[in-house]
Amino acid sequence: MRIAARGLLAFLVFVAAFALYWKLWPAGRGEGRECELTSGVHAVCGLNKPEDMLRLGDSDWVIAGNMGNDDWVGGGLFAVRMSDEAFRALTPEFSRPSAPTYRDCPGAPDPKLFSAHGIALRARGEGEHTLYAVNHGGRESIEVFDVRVSAEGPELTWTGCVVLPAEHAANSIAPLPDGGIVVTIPHLPSSSDSEGAVLRWGPGGGWSEVPGTRLKGDNGILVSPDGTRLYVNEYNNSKVHEVPLDGAATPPRSVDLGFHPDNIRFAPDGSILATGHPNSIAIVALCGFVVMCGVDTEVARVDPTTFQATTLFKRGANETFSGGTSAIVVGDELWIGSFVSRALLIVPLSELRQPIG
C-alpha cells in the first residue's frame, strides 16, 4: 500500500507539473499566426528581443533595442517604420573618438558585442537626438549616439560612453535637464536582499546614488517634464514610485499595480504607461531564462495627478508574443516590446479597456 501511495503521489506530481508546464509552454518566439495578420491585435516578427522602444520625435520611425542572445552577443538596435511596419537593423558608425563630455570613456564598444537594453532619447533639434543605450555586451556601460533622422530613416554615430561602477549592471535610463542621466540598478552588489537603487551621472562628475530610491528591484525610470521628480518601477513589489529630485518639496508617492512593472513611458496625454508581468517572479525567471515557456503581459495607465492606476491591456503568452516590457503610443496603436520574443506586439487603441489621449 505504501508503494502504491508513493506511486500515486509521484503520478499526481507529474500530472500537476505537466499541467503547469503545458499552461506556460507558449514561448512567444515570434512564430505564431499573429505574425501573418495586418490588422487588429497582431505582431511584427523578426526583431530580436525589442525590450525597449521610443518614437523618434514626430517622424515615421520608432527605434527599438535588441538585447541580443542569452550571452548578449548579436544585439544592437532596430529602426521600425510606422507607416508599413517595415524594419531594419541599424549599423552605427563606431569609428569616431568619444566627445569631450565623455572624456573618461575608454573607447567605442566592440560592435559584435554591443547589446541594447533600456534606451532613452534627448531631443536636440529638428530631426536630431541623442540616444542613450544600456549596454551589457563586453562591458557594463551607457553608450551614447548622435541620431539624425531623414526620409530614409535614422542614422547613428557613436559619440561616447559612461562606464558603470564596478560590479554594477543597469537596466533602464532617462536623461536629466542638466545634461546628466539617471539609471536603475536592479540589484546592488553590496545588497543581499535584492535591493537596488537609482544612480545619477553628470558631465564632469562621477556616479552618485539618488536618495529615496533603494527599492526591491529598481527597473523602469522616467524624469518628470519639469525635472523635479523621478518615476521609478519597483519590480519585486509591483509598484511605481514618484521620488522628489534635488530637494523638491513634493512628497514621495507610490501606487501598487498588481503586477511586476518593467518599463514605463509617457503617453501623449502626460500619463504614465507601465508594462510588466502578472506572473510570479519565479515563473518569470523560469520562463524567461531557463525553459523558455510563456510570460504574460499587462499594461496599466498611471494618472500623474491622482497617482492611481488602471489596467489598459492584459493577455496571456502564446507562440507569437511573451513577456511584454515596454509600451508606447504610436499613432492610434499601442506598441509593446519584449525581453524574450522575436517580435513586438501591436494593439489598436480601440482594443484597450479604457481610452488614452
From TrEMBL:
All residue ranges annotated as the SMP-30/Gluconolactonase/LRE-like region domain in the record: 168-273
Pfam families found in the cross-reference section: SGL
PANTHER family: PARAOXONASE, PARAOXONASE-RELATED
Protein name according to UniProt: SMP-30/Gluconolactonase/LRE-like region domain-containing protein
Protein source organism: Cystobacter ferrugineus
